[in-house]
Design brief:
With 162 residues, the chain is mainly α. The chain contains 6 helices and no strands.
Length: 162
């Protein structure tokens, strides 16, 4: 139990560090760096806890991205920055690079290797399996972040006409 919890915390901390790197790359204000780290840490922890309970990676990514979308709203109002400033860098570490890599590798093998029909069938299965997993994870990240931001958005004081 303890090594698993420590492993989950380690992966969550690395998710936070990666998000801080993207936040710095996107040039967000200094007061938002800690917030991005904490959001990504929470999202990474949620995602990997769900994966540890054998929940599908697409559903785990949707849940973690929804956490980021929901929590970034009150944080943005408290620090007076748009929620997108926090939410986008926090979910970038969850982009499915492994599945994209495996999809491209399978495509390249299918095109350039001369293999028999059963191997080509297996490569086609890998292409579609990894490609659709990658696509659905990207869609779940998009929905998870944007839906709470769209549904819970309130008009700001600046837009009220007197």
């Amino acid at each position: 139990m303890i090594p698993t919890l420590l492993n989950l915390l380690e992966v969550a901390i690395w998710s936070g560090i990666a998000a801080v790197g993207f936040a710095i790359l996107f040039n967000i204000p200094r007061k938002g760096i800690i917030t991005v780290f904490l959001l990504a840490l929470g999202a990474g922890f949620i995602k990997f806890v769900l994966l540890d309970f054998h929940i599908n990676i697409i559903l785990a990514s949707l849940t973690a991205a929804s956490f980021v979308g929901l929590v970034s709203m009150p944080l943005a109002h408290r620090i007076h920055l748009p929620p997108v400033v926090y939410s986008i860098p926090a979910v970038i570490p969850m982009i499915p690079g492994y599945f994209a890599y495996e999809t491209v590798l399978s495509i390249m093998s299918f095109i350039f290797l001369e293999v028999d029909v059963p191997k080509r069938t297996a490569l086609m299965q890998d292409i579609f399996s990894n490609g659709f997993t990658m696509l659905f994870i990207l869609i779940s990240l998009t929905i998870g972040v944007s839906l709470p931001l769209l549904l819970l958005r309130k008009n700001t004081v600046k837009k009220i006409k007197r």
